[in-house]
Amino acid sequence: MIATGFRLVRVGVTLGSLLLLTNSIALRAAAQEAPAARFLQVGPGLYFNYDFAGSNSAVLITEEGVLVVDTRTHPADAELLLAEIRERTDAPIRWVINSQFHGDHHMGNSVFAREGATIIAHRDTQAIMIERFEFEVATRPFEQRGLNREEVELVLPDILFDHRLTLNLGGYAVELIYLGAGQNEGDTLVYFPHARALHTGGVFHNRSWANPSYTPSVDGWISVLRAMKTIDVDSYLPPHGPIATKQDLDNFIEFLGLLHSGVRDAINQGASLEEMLLANPFTQYSGWRGYERRERNLTALYELLTTGEAQYFVPANQARPIAQ
Ligand SMILES: [Zn+2]
Q1: How far is the CA of 250 from the centre of ligand 1 (A)?
Q2: What's the CA gap between 275 and 193, in Å, rounded?
Q3: 164 in a domain, yes or no?
Q4: Is residue 296 one of the residues assigned to a domain?
Q5: Which strand ranges, in their side-by-side order, compose the sheet holding 159-161?
Q6: Rounded to the nearest whole angstrom, what is the distance from the C-alpha of residue 104 to the centroid of ligand 1?
Q7: 90: CATH
Q8: Prediction pTM value
Q9: What is the pLDDT of residues 56-115, one digit of tens each?
Q10: 171 CA distance to ligand 1 middle (Å)
């Protein structure tokens, strides 16, 4: 009996190992499908880490030290970003800026804190980072990428700002600017005057169906986008999507305005959620990143305009199930 039991256990272990092996092969295949992030130079000392499948970062490398805007989704992603930096400089990592509270922009903080960086964020960003950290960790698809969610730590800012803050590093000025809530309370713009470039926080996503579940007001978001246009730059470095031009920014403002008016007009005509979705196919934006999230995004706008509540902050048991 003992021998039979032992053999059964052995068979179980072997099958389990096979399943694990099959899983890890599938994970590696899935990871290989996503294009790797690219570390692109966009100005003197200024780089844009463009990750089509994840979130973007900006990096300023100077002889005095390095400044990083956004630390990616997981410490493993942050290590890859750090490796790109270390290929180019041994200078210390002096500053990290978290442009927004979404986990995919700060959950790599621990790697840069270990390197000695001082972390800065808007006061509202820190408040929501704390409030939503567990949710952000729980809802990211780490397992699909073969990553361990237990490795993610909440590493909070060392310095908070409210309106403007100017840093000087290696002879370059870097300005942190808050113009109000765009997609998010606390959306921080980071201006690099020497490179005529602006990291746009959550305010502007290029050619992307940016999720409106977080915004307190679409009118407010569009006002912030218009105010951002007065900062005269050649390149916008968005949190998602490729490097953008002024024309791309105008296209996004138009997109957001059309989404807003499409949903608002349907509500004013007494349309149900389902009728509003049918009336707003927005096929002209089917080539933008995240078009598959159209129904979720329009539903969030419908709820915002009818209840006044940003859907991301509504407790799950009170939220309307979002159409897939
Ligand atoms: Zn993001």
Answers
A1: 21
A2: 47
A3: yes
A4: no
A5: 38-43, 46-50, 57-61, 66-69, 93-98, 118-122, 159-161
A6: 5
A7: 3.60.15.10
A8: 0.87
A9: 999 999 999 999 999 999 999 999 999 999 999 999 999 999 999 999 999 999 999 999
A10: 30
